[in-house]
Amino acid sequence: MEFSSSLVLVLVLAVLMLVWWKRNASGLSLPPGPLALPLIGNLPIMDKRAPFKSFMQWSKTYGPVMTVYLGPQRMVVLVGYGTVKEALVDQAEHFTGRAPIPFLIKVLRGYGLAISNGDRWRQLRRFTLTTLRDFGMGRKRMEQWIQEESRHLLESFEETKSTPVDPAFFLSRAVSNVICSLVFGQRFDYEDKNFLHLLQIISRLVRFISSPQGQLYNVFPKLMQLLPGRHHAMFKEIEVIKAFVLKKIKEHEQNLDFGDQKDFIDCFLIKLKQEKHNPDTEFHKDNMLGTVLNLFIAGTETTSTTLRYALMLLIKHPHIQAIFIWCIIIIFIWCIVVFYCYYLAHNY
């Protein structure tokens, strides 16, 4: 019995050493980094809830560019504004590729804008940017939608009677409605139960992806798929969002007017029909579903998170808040002066 146990232990150690040797014999000239263990990498010494804290700490020893292993997955980590800017802005063409994210691949099956690469990414990105700009992104029309939604947001804050509240859900509803206006051609009432349910799912999804269990799924996807856990519940909840988007796409198909394109889905459906005889086209139902999900989920969460962070900074730094208020007052006064001068010029 003792001999058998020893033999199993030796075999396990031999396999681990083989994996370690193959990984280090790849011939790549990699940046320095913390010592990693076979199979589990740097996970034991990493802050699971805030990995960036570990990256910041390690960068003091190994520099702003370092090699880190999340389990068996090798990563090159960039730390600091200057380093990130040099790579992603100054040398953007060399860093356009996206690493596979198992959780998103499982959800989207590789389709859509967010996780695609190569020609698919270029085609979808070009079409998406052009279409959103045509519908007012970064222009006056978009500004009007934002102003209208801002009024609804202020009304919902006023209903709290100045009691302390968490602004997360308030901002998510407002931001998501602007996204919905662009993508679905409609906004939803803040009390719409289906709309609120979808936002709750998005919130839980983002929290899960950034949780230790969500990170483990991306490191060991095959193993996690066999184990029980929250990831199975999340996949079921994502199907609810998919069903909602598919229902909206079907409604758009039934009411499609080639001469009156109301939103992003209308434009994608028309493009799909125009390229239906092209065997190499990336404009098909799978990419449409994936791209709409990208815009709806990622657009809602990223923008509302940015607004929450801005509010937090204003609360934390009252002197910046005062400057911010004075800037608004000055702009308001300037607008009144310009309007009055315009009025005088056209009446005398």
TrEMBL record:
Residues 1-27 form the signal peptide. It holds the Pfam family p450. It comes from Sinocyclocheilus rhinocerous. PANTHER family: CYTOCHROME P450 2G1-LIKE-RELATED (PTHR24300:SF153), CYTOCHROME P450 508A4-RELATED (PTHR24300). GO terms for molecular function: heme binding; iron ion binding; oxidoreductase activity, acting on paired donors, with incorporation or reduction of molecular oxygen, reduced flavin or flavoprotein as one donor, and incorporation of one atom of oxygen. Belongs to the cytochrome P450 family. Its cofactor is heme. The chain crosses the membrane at residues 323-345. This is Cytochrome P450 2G1-like.
